[in-house]
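## Example pair
The file below holds two records. Each record gives the amino-acid sequence first, followed by its structure token line.
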Amino acid sequence: MEKLKALFMKYKEPILYIIFGGLTTLVNWGSFWLLFEIFHIDYLVATALAWLLSVAFAYITNRIWVFESKADTAKAVALEILAFFAFRLLSGGMDMGLMYVGVDLLHINELLMKLLSNVVVVIANYIFSKLFIFRKKK
């Protein structure tokens, strides 16, 4: 058990990112499914709304549990939120572009394409978060 605990502590950040990234993907995919399949909202509009919900969820979980942000002033938190949403806008654009190419140009099923797109987006978001948003100060 101690070896498992030591292994977890060594890789805590990527493990938690994978867990919360998976949950964020579920929020995104589930929101998209609900909006597209149940409410019959256009797939690009549903993608944008699902993105907004998942980004809010991701910021909270990343700040608290994954990267354990030390930003403690209003200015520092505001800058962190701004950076987080700016990079998520970039990955949201990637998501929209992948959905357009996959659905409209390649004729891939909307739900399958959403899942594939989210894999790419989660990887990009980890890189953005690790290198730019929640980087540890020296």
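Second record, same layout:
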Amino acid sequence: MALQLNHLRGRQALTLGAISLGLLVAAFFVSRTDQAVYAARPGGVLAAPGIDAPGVQTRVISITSRQGVFSLVRTPRGWSLQDRGGYPVGADRVRAVEAAFKSLRLMGPITRDSAKHGRLNVGDPAAGGDGVLVQLQDERGAFLVDLIVGYRDESVYVRKRGDTQVWTVSGSLPPLRDASFWLELAPFGLSITELQRLDIAAPTGPGFTILRPEPGAEFTLGRPFSALVITQKAALASMLSVIAKVQPRDVAPAPSFGGVPMARLLATASDGVIVAMDVHRKDGVDWLKATARTAPEATAEAQARAQQINAQTGAWAFRLSPEDSLALTPALAALVGEEAVTRHLSVIAAVPRPRPIVQDSSTASAPPAQSSPAPPPEPSAGPP
């Protein structure tokens, strides 16, 4: 009996060993086959071969990350961000994304272990992962690109959605989850050389005016601060740079931001175009709304330009970085120094105001005394 049990146990051990060996051999050959496909091609294989098929056109682009979702749709009028009030997107941005995925190639497998996806930043964003899900669809809704992209240090990794295998790639991808990639960087079209006057109402301090005495001259302060000198040239340069080339972080429909702005800047160009830039703060984030108009004496060309600016910006608000928001509407002290502002305001406050003359009935019929004409009123220091 004992011999029979030993014999049975031996046969079971041999069977289990054979099964284990078979599984190991199968896994080895599957792994070898999986990697041999790429090892046989030194240049790798296309990561998204469908996008390069003849006659295929992209109609929908969706970028999903922990930062949010960008949904772009091609319409008869061009590309637009549908989830951001239909803000128009340049076709060059879409072509850049298509070109990047047409050249992106899978070079070699890294891991199938889903526990390691977090280290390579290829976790599914729908489940809270750090990956970026990129989906491009054609006219029929078929996926041309359906990949989760991970950025780590200087490397890029990808995996197909629903697949655990992670690959190294060759090629470069634009910053897809960065809203500024999709937005125009200079939506107001104002150049520094054409700026003639800036009326600023900052969040703190008095309102003031900066103007050019003549074309090409340096900016100086207007009354009642014309005696002060702009000493902080870097702050002035930062403000002019933001006006000329705003770099929004995001965009949203303008009706979402109402009420009194926390700061305002009126930029007047030499052709009479006036752009009002209102800064609104919502949930701790600063947003910029801009509308354009023209001076009464402006030409038809200037009026057409103002209309074009409104078409590009009027329906939307632009999210500003904290640095751009601070630079766009600086306090007067940021340009001339706190001490200079305090001293000048104290001088203005010390100037006695003329007391009104109260006439009684006995002098009411007397002719008024001759006096020198009153000085003209000073222009408003802040925006209207």
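Notes on the second record: The radius of gyration is 33 Å. The CA atoms of residues 199 and 384 lie 9 Å apart.
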